[in-house]
Amino acid sequence: xxxxxxxxxxxxxxxxxxxxxxxxxxxxxxxxxxxxxxxxxxxxxxxxxxxxxxxxxxxxxxxxxxxxxxxxxxxxxxxxxxxxxxxxxxxxxxxxxxxxxxxxxxxxxxxxxxxxxxxxxxxxxxxxxxxxxxxxxxxxxxxxxxxxxxxxxxxxxxxxxxxxxxxxxxxxxxxxxxxxxxxxxxxxxxxxxxxxxxxxxxxxxxxxxxxxxxxxxxxxxxxxxxxxxxxxxxxxxxxxxxxxxxxxxxxxxx
Amino acid sequence: xxxxxxxxxxxxxxxxxxxxxxxxxxxxxxxxxxxxxxxxxxxxxxxxxxxxxxxxxxxxxxxxxxxxxxxxxxxxxxxxxxxxxxxxxxxxxxxxxxxxxxxxxxxxxxxxxxxxxxxxxxxxxxxxxxxxxxxxxxxxxxxxxxxxxxxxxxxxxxxxxxxxxxxxxxxxxxxxxxxxxxxxxxxxxxxxxxxxxxxxxxxxxxxxxxxxxxxxxxxxxxxxxxxx
Amino acid sequence: xxxxxxxxxxxxxxxxxxxxxxxxxxxxxxxxxxxxxxxxxxxxxxxxxxxxxxxxxxxxxxxxxxxxxxxxxxxxxxxxxxxxxxxxxxxxxxxxxxxxxxxxxxxxxxxxxxxxxxxxxxxxxxxxxxxxxxxxxxxxxxxxxxxxxxxxxxxxxxxxxxxxxxxxxxxxxxxxxxxxxxxxxxxxxxxxxxxxxxxxxxxxxxxxxxxxxxxxxxxxxxxxxxxxxxxxxxxxxxxxxxxxxxxxxxxxxxxxxxxxxxxxxxxxxxxxxxxxxxxxxxxxxxxxxxxxxxxxxxxxxxxxxxxxxxxxxxxxxxxxxxxxxxxxxxxxxxxxxxxxxxxxxxxxxxxxxxxxxxxxxxxxxxxxxxxxxxxxxxxxxxxxxxxxxxxxxxxxxxxxxxxxxxxxxxxxxxxxxxxxxxxxxxxxxxxxxxxxxxxxxxxxxxxxxxxxxxxxxxxxxxxxxxxxxxxxxxxxxxxxxxxxxxxxxxxxxxxxxxxxxxxxxxxxxxxxxxxxxxxxxxxxxxxxxxxxxxxxxxxxxxxxxxxxxxxxxxxxxxxxxxxxxxxxxxxxxxxxxxxxxxxxxxxxxxxxxxxxxxxxxxxxxxxxxxxxxxxxxxxxxxxxxxxxxxxxxxxxxxxxxxxx
Lengths: 254, 228, 644
Known about the structure:
Number of strands of chain B: 2
Mean pLDDT of chain C: 95
Radius of gyration of chain C: 24 Å
Strand order of the largest sheet of chain C: 1-20-19-11-17
Helix content of chain B: over 70%
CATH class of the largest domain in chain C: Alpha Beta
Largest interface: A-C, 85 and 84 residues
CATH architecture of the largest domain in chain C: 3-Layer(bba) Sandwich
Oligomer: heterotrimer
Strand content of chain B: under 5%
Order of helices and strands of chain B: HHHHHHEEHHH
Shape of chain C: globular
Helix content of chain C: 25-40%
Number of helices of chain C: 17
Number of domains of chain B: 1
């Protein structure tokens, strides 16, 4: 049924690294018969099938929902996290964006706080540890008042949702020349700052999350704004401004 | 679970520090430029302005020390930011590219540490040259309203008769413009003052500010070289 | 395919009497664990989605020690994250006639009378608390201008009871649960184990006491012991290869529990979602769902002429067949999921399908754009249109969307009683992984509700009832049962790696998926099911002879992970076919061609099939034993669903 469709071939340079302890390198591959409507990850699936058939080891890469919401996938494609198209995850990127025969370099999301696990897979558990320190409202199940007891304006809800849309993929860190996690942390701080539910723990949250962010070895922010361009959910660096305000406010409240 | 504390030298603390000192320094630069415009009026106006500053006495010393402190804090926090950043990604990808708009990454944002370092050296030189007269001219005096005062105008004019100094000063002012191109809006962002409405405004204003400051300063040595 | 049938062996264990006070009475009658003793108990929770994440967090809040496992790199990526539309709750904020009773009634009826009344009633009761809990966590639900929560009508419901956060409701609810979970990790009450795949259940003296995991990052097998195990590992739609589920969603944990003695209930109840983006080619790894809210304004049609290859714009109005509007004049394009899916398949099977594959129907917005204006349509559906265009490179503003049904949700799952306990004492099953609440068809926006109800409000009570009778502190991972389970797991892995055949697991999975889709999909037929079960058996034998798995077991090896899951799909796949074969009626998603009216509508057989089909593993995959749990309908009267 795809006979009518013209398939494409690509030259790939892919980062291969057996495990965290080894050093990696770029390895050249050629992949043919790629359906231009397939996604970037399906192209890698296709490559892996051919590698396995040849008795070679397939390329390890992470993905799950393949519809842009789980945040599992993410590689640097020709130097750009999630590839050339803005506001898109790697799984949403289609091969028709790449001309027939071009060379594509595929490397992992790079940061010391994201050590490589294998090939294109990195360990992003540093994000979890930052959230652990306060990226939530401390409320036990069963203790909540009626949901409508706390009116929240549509603007507030929309604004909070803009920040809450973060999928935790780490493209912000990968794109940042400083490997900073400010956008990720800022987005959670801002969501909780806008909503009245987050008010009680506001000071502690800002201080604790920043403390953990620093302990994980992320870089500092220099306001390059590259993260906003790389973010598949178009999360604004306004969230980073909020992070600074909240931190400054905490200086006077703690 | 330890109780978290505000840390001035945390990543965000340093940004706040860099931003606040940056804003203050921009305020100083504007004042400095406005004061220096007296150079275009002539010897009496300029020396009158510098004498007025000297009349402040102890206050001037406090202001000078304060300024030195601002420069130092700005430089130290920025250098620490730079140091931490270079340690945050030990292995770099072979291909690195920008995603483009809405990224604000430019040659200016990437070269802040370079332009900043040059400016730091320059500030030391500049103060030594004109405030402390290490290349001479500290003893130049003139009479103003019957009082003997320091003739800083003469020192400035003599300095910029030398084309080498003109080149150095013009060059550094271009770099200052570059530093401000990113520094202006970035300082507001660093202290958390920008939202999506204000950001484009601050970003555009930064370009105007950078050009105005750089041009404002660099025409002085050129003017003095040509016409004084 | 004659099977041994056992009646009367299964009891839900729910209390007798008035349904409205049942859960209250049950909560009072259940035993409690003394607060000081709770910390002496350790509970394993497998899965971190809405059910697992909520359960782990809530059990930790109560004071239990929780070991929480997930296959992803972080708990926040569990597939609950992908649910778009919303979550139902009987809040009746719009004052439009909703109530706990109506939600209960709609769910039982929507499930075509194959769900257990008591469980569904409790679900409807808990739904109210879920919204309160999520709002308190900071979930940014959509709001009205007065600041109150917004509701919409969803999936053909006649009241507006669906709460939503843009098209990302699942994500936001999951992040709420994830936040609560992370808080307990910080407090030291939950130990989080990411990149762990549960590969066997350890049963000690008849009770679930631990699990064997493969550390996916290192390949090492690990043993974990606890006083009870909660399984919340989701559904098994991925057995069909192409589904709307995440590519790593799988049936393995549940299936291995089945092989340890947990009965598998109604495996053939699998929901097909009507509005998915159709298959474009053989390299495709999954199908993408678009919210069924599209059917509120889009009109579904095919050309009246078979094999019509003209572009849709050149097909005049009178040569289009709006088949849902024609067949179901009163519900039109808003008929339930199963009905819409079946009608689309029928149209394609008869040769009216469109697109390059002929496996698609049009969903047309031109009339809506004319009626509402392009801007209004954009406001309502803009993000969905963008998503569609991203994938297909076609703009739904200009040309009709092409849609086709895809496997989406499995109502079947491990059998549980009223306390969510499986047939293995101590093994509790939550969320999509169990079978309990949706009968033969799930209503839109009810999956999130069930996952969270189980996790936040049911298991915290019912697990205590089990633990109260259990001596705390089981931690002996050297028990012979652990040795046996680990040997079993290692044997499977070694067998997969040793085959070194010619075909990849993906090729086998694709073939299995086609078999299931063709014969155990939207319509089923007895002889076809018998043959399918046989073919699956044959393909399974070939799989073990001829599969090729790359790499070794002692490292991160995604290929091996996948091969293990495919191996389990082959075993589960056969049971799906056997279950569908043995249910000689049509109900909900299960349409048997030999049990339908002349107009193609489902015909239930309440006299003989008003039961849960719970399958016991006998040691022979092809000879499962059928336990029937009779379903009683004392509160909702059995009726024929009619959407004409």
